[in-house]
Structures are given as C-alpha cells and as structure tokens.
Inverse folding.
C-alpha cells in the first residue's frame, strides 16, 4: 500500500506539466488540511471528452484524500467563449445552446466523481451581476501587454487576424470565479495558464490568499491534434463501450503510453514495464493498446462491458466476423438510396457525411464495398447486414 507521501507525489507529478506553488501545495496536501479545489468547464458541446477527463481523474484522486471539489459549469463564460487554445476568434454562443449543452454535465462528471460530495455552481450566478465599475476595477489589475504576450494571441496579431475586446475579458471572468469561491487550488490544462494565473492576481487584489495551480498536460485526439470538440477528434465519456474501445484502437501507437498515464490509473510501475516490453519487442503495441482500451472502457462503463467490447473488436476487426446481434433498421418505402439509409439509421451525421463514407470505401455488404451513394436499395437487400466503418453494423429490413 502506498504511503500518503507517495500518493501526494503522484498527484503532483502524474500527467502534470506545472504546479504553482508546488512546495506550498505539497505541504498543504501532506498536513491533511481540507482544500477547496476549483475546476470549471464551459459547455461548448453536449459531451465531456477524455481530454477533460484528465483533470477529472486528478480531481477524483484529490476527492479520495478528503478535499472539497468545487465544480463550476461556465454557463456565462460559455456564452462569451475562451480563445486560450484557438488560432482564431471563437464565436459567441447563444444562451439556449449553452443551456442545452450543459444538461448532463454533472451526470457525466459523476462517472468519475462522487457528485453528492461535490459543491456545484453556475458562474452566471455572479458574473451576470457585475457592474461596469466592478469589471473596470478587475481589468485594472492587468495590462494589455500581458494579454498580447500569450503565444496564440501573438500569432494572431502577427497574422493580422481579428482579436475582439471580448476575448480580453475571459481571463477576468475565470479569475473572478476563484475570488467568489475562495479557491485554494485550481486545476486546468496547460492552455489555461494565463486564465489560471488571473485567478491568483484577482484573489490578491481581493485580499485573499492566492490559489495554487496544477496544470495537466493536454492529450491528442484521434487525428493526432489536441483533443477538441471543435475538431470532432474526441472520445466521449458517453460513447458506448464498443465505440469507445474502437476509437482508442484507431489511435496511433505513439499515444499508448501517454493515454495510460493520463487516462487511466494503472500503476506507474506497470506502465514502465509495458514501455520496456514494447521497446524490447516482447509486447505487441496492438496488444498493449487493447489492454489500454479495456482499462478506459472499464472506468466509464464496467469490467464486463470492457471484456465484451474487447471480444467484439477481436471478432469484427481481427477475425472479420459479423456480430450475431446487429441493430435492425426498417424502411417503410419500397426502396431507399444508400446515402439516405445511412443517415436515417444513424450511421452518418448528414447526407454529405454519408456520401463521403461511401465514396471512401467505408460501406460494404457481404465483404463487397459499395461506392455509389445513390444506389437504390430494394427488397433484394432485405436482411442484409451493412458494415459502416470499422465497427458499425446495421441490418436493413423492408
């Protein structure tokens, strides 16, 4: 069993890029003082993804030590939009979209946290009430030079890309959240560094003790870029087991160890063994990735679901078998275009997406690819199982 010192050290180092102030935070964690640990998330999409879950896992580690997690849904900041990680201006969202997106956020976070013990807030409760004079007082704490020195902002200025004054306000809002909640520690990604530091400065301005900061590394998504809902390269916490496992298996081998460290709680000693075994050639990266995928599915579903998903993947991908249980989709008309069938059955997000999948060879029947989006499917296809992509199967019924 790990000592408290070992547990704290792993919290401070596993998947962590930077801690401010590390000695101060280490001392507090070791003394057992209960800390108010702030984490905020803007509901810019309906789904929380694994990139966000890196922070949520860190929160779970701290919750298990008895600390108070303070979870903020940024229903106000979500409308304004954070451009910390963007190379162009993020458009403002309307309140209705934000409200729709956040409906299941607490439920999704509950896959990792004991939400009965979590203090929950919406930051519109205080940000929407600020006056011009109060905002001006906060803005006076920072200089324009500090804002434009940020790497992504500097790049946009050099390119001549528009930067709205609205974007300057976002760090003030995130920082003011820390003031209102009297946060002792805030957790966020490395792209949030300026915003996290803004909390320290505004707390000092409000005569509070400045919060410590723990910044976790960002992880890459399915296409090798930073995981982001804007790019659609995400693994969602609400993905079904087969889909979640399949997405992980589609990633590059170079991400295996990073995902083990950031997205699981497999012991670091075991991860080092896996690294050595892959380097020596005694462990096939594909097998290591399948183990990884099972670990992640187990976290968000169950051990049984993880094992079933692994077997499903082995049968459908490795052995190229058609699963015994396939969802059926009934068509009331006498015929339907292939592209329309994919859209109607939920195997494409739009007709354009369906056309692209078909033309790229992603749709097959009886092992034969179908490359014509306008192919008319009639009763001769009744009972046929269509394979869509690597893991999707649907049976057509008339």
């Amino acid at each position: 069993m790990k000592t408290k010192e070992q547990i704290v050290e792993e919290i401070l180092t596993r998947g962590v890029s930077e801690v401010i102030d590390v000695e101060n935070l280490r001392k507090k964690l070791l003394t057992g003082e209960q800390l108010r640990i702030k984490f905020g998330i803007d509901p810019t999409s309906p789904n929380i993804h694994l990139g966000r879950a890196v922070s949520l896992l860190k929160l779970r580690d701290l919750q298990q030590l008895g600390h108070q997690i303070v979870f903020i849904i940024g229903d106000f900041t979500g409308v304004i939009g954070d451009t910390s990680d963007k190379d162009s201006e993020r458009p403002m969202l309307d309140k209705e979209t934000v409200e729709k997106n956040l409906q299941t956020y607490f439920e999704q976070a509950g896959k990792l946290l004991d939400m009965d013990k979590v203090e929950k807030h919406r930051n519109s409760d205080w940000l929407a009430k600020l006056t011009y004079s109060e905002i001006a007082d906060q803005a006076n704490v920072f200089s324009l030079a500090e804002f434009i020195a940020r790497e992504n902002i500097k790049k946009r200025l050099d390119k001549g890309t528009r930067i709205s004054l609205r974007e300057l306000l976002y760090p003030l809002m995130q920082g003011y959240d820390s003031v209102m909640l009297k946060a002792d520690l805030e957790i966020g990604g490395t792209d949030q560094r300026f915003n996290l530091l803004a909390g320290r400065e505004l707390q000092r301005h409000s005569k509070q003790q400045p919060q410590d900061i723990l910044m976790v590394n960002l992880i890459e998504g399915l296409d090798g870029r930073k995981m982001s809902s804007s790019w659609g390269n995400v693994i969602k916490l609400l993905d079904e087991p087969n889909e979640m496992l399949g997405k992980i298996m589609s990633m590059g081998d170079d991400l295996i160890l990073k995902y083990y460290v950031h997205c699981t709680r497999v012991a670091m000693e075991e991860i080092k063994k896996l690294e050595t075994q892959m380097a020596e050639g005694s462990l096939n990266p594909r097998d290591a990735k399948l183990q990884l995928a099972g670990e992640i599915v187990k976290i968000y579903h169950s051990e049984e679901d993880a094992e079933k998903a692994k077997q499903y993947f082995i049968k459908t991908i490795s052995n190229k078998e058609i699963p015994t249980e396939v969802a059926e989709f009934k068509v009331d008309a006498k015929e339907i275009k292939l592209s329309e069938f994919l859209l109607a059955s939920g195997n494409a997000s739009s007709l354009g997406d369906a056309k692209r999948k078909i033309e790229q060879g992603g749709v097959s029947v009886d092992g034969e690819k179908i490359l014509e989006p306008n192919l008319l499917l009639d009763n001769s296809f009744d009972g046929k199982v269509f394979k869509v992509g690597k893991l999707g199967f649907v049976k057509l019924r008339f």
